[in-house]
Design brief:
Helix content is 25%, strand content 30%. It is α/β, with parallel strands linked by helices and 391 residues long.
Length: 391
């Protein structure tokens, strides 16, 4: 029977990983999220935050403005360096400090010793009490439900916890698009540092060097910085990194992606249509991911009714590699793409008229060879005709 700690690893892992949803972008002074935001305890965000429901844990520092289109929940001892604007209800724990103005369009639940420098404005009720620490409550509840195997109740509890009106179909469901910043994470223009994994969605625009245990990026990622990882780095198609990739494990780069720096990893899987401007260092080798070659053969078969062509295409498919990988053996360091050098050599040999297994001879040499063979046969005939008569 597995120990009890293994049964609760999934919710713990969710709250320890950096999750960035699709279309998230870091602008000059704020993080814009097309969804909800959860910031773990004792994190530091040197930006503002714009999202739907914004959840900020205990002891968090946010230097910029916080704008929540729906609710905002801020736990105790957190400090916000600018104004806070909330579209619906706000919940502030004890000893929360806001340097700017607090604007709430709904109700306000506020704990003791809350300081708002520029004053506050609310259109609903004001209740002075200490709200429940949302991050800790959420974590403990999910962990207990997962231990009991009640996954459906977990989903329902999350919806009930963060939606004020269950019948309001326009309010977004928490978790569909969710930015999760794990506890102790630092996000600044210089670096995004997380102790666990980092998972980035599609079409994201980020600034800063990313440091994580492993990183998985979606399609269309644009990063103004480098990536440092202890484990695997995966970048989707059409991604651009204005920096280097450093990993102790494997690096995999998708189609039409470009790395403006170098790559240093144990092994590299590079799509044939990707580009790396810097040096690639990979002790275990570099492999090129090719396009599926059998697509061309299938297209020819569809346009032809010949059975011979169909058999040829079938044989071509059987002989093609399954994953479309071309291994560059014993490659430790390359300055440019190896495929470019290979194509250049092949074209040079073709122009020189090289045919394997056959020596190249000039026209004069071939003519002399024919003359020797003809003269030799005539001389041989003369000797055989006069060999019996001696003078």
């Amino acid at each position: 029977m597995p120990p009890e700690s293994e049964s609760i690893s999934e919710p713990e892992q969710i709250l320890r990983s950096l999750l960035i949803p699709d279309n998230t972008r870091i602008e000059e002074n704020r993080i814009v999220v097309d969804g909800d935001v959860i910031v773990g305890n004792h994190s530091s965000i040197e930006y503002g935050i714009l999202g739907n429901t914004v959840i900020i844990g205990e002891g968090v520092n946010v230097s910029g403005e916080v704008v929540a289109k729906s609710d905002a929940r801020i736990d105790m001892w957190s400090k916000l360096g600018s104004s806070v604007e909330v579209g619906k209800n706000a919940y502030l724990g004890e000893f929360v400090a806001i340097d700017g103005k607090l604007t709430v369009n709904g109700d306000l639940d506020v704990g003791k010793e809350v300081k708002v420098k520029a004053g506050f404005e609310t259109k609903g009720w004001i209740v002075v009490r200490n709200p429940v620490p949302v991050i800790m409550f959420l974590f403990l509840y999910i962990r207990e439900m997962m231990r009991l195997g009640k996954g459906e109740e977990v989903e329902k509890a999350i919806e009930d916890l963060f939606e004020d009106c269950e019948d309001d179909e326009e309010s977004p469901r928490l978790g569909e698009k969710l930015l999760v910043v794990p506890a102790g994470t630092k996000v600044s223009p210089e670096a995004i540092e997380v102790s666990g994994e980092a998972k980035i969605g599609n079409s994201c625009i980020l600034i800063g060097n990313i440091k994580a245990q492993s990183l998985e990026g979606g399609k269309g990622l644009t990063l103004q910085g480098s990536i440092h990882s202890e484990g695997k780095i995966t970048l989707g198609d059409n991604s651009t990194v204005h920096g280097s990739l450093v990993s102790k494990g494997q690096v995999r780069i998708g189609r039409n992606s470009r790395i403006y720096g170098g790559i240093k990893a144990d092994s590299v899987f590079l799509h044939e249509k990707a580009r790396v401007d810097g040096t690639i260092r990979a002790p275990s080798g570099v492999s090129f991911i090719r396009e599926p070659a059998e697509k061309t053969a299938f297209r020819k078969v569809q346009n032809s009714e010949s059975q011979a062509a169909e058999k040829a295409a079938t044989g071509f498919k059987e002989n093609s590699p399954e994953e479309g990988l071309v291994k560059a053996l014993e490659v430790v360091e390359i300055e440019t793409l190896l495929k470019t050098k290979t194509k250049t050599k092949t074209k040079t040999k073709a122009k020189n008229g090289f045919v394997p297994g056959r020596e190249r001879r000039s026209a004069r040499t071939r003519a002399l060879g024919r003359s020797r063979r003809f003269t030799g046969s005539r001389m041989s005939g003369r000797n055989s005709g006069t060999g019996e008569h001696h003078i």
